[in-house]
Write a structure and sequence with these properties.
Structural class: alpha+beta
Number of helices: 2
Radius of gyration: 12 Å
Strand content: 35-45%
Order of helices and strands: EEHEEH
Number of strands: 4
Shape: globular
Strand order of the largest sheet: 2-1-3-4
Distance between the termini: 28 Å
Helix content: 25-40%
């Protein structure tokens, strides 16, 4: 299966990639790894079934003590 990741600065896409995965857990793990790598930006992932995003960046989670 494949999923498209978008890294956003506001509404502007600054990077995008297509990733292959074998299970929902693997997709979730990849999603969190990409969020950590691009911690100052919003990350969105979309596949044929769902679009996932957070209302805050990973860096915001760290600053708030959530991560």
């Amino acid at each position: 299966m494949t999923a498209q990741f978008k890294v956003l600065d506001g509404t502007q896409v600054i990077n995008q990639m297509v990733v292959e995965y074998d299970s929902p857990k693997e997709l979730n793990d990849i999603f969190h790894a990409v969020r950590k790598e691009w911690s100052e930006y919003m990350v969105e992932v979309e596949n044929e079934y769902i679009t996932m995003t957070f209302s805050h960046t990973y860096a915001e989670e760290v600053r708030r003590g959530w991560a």
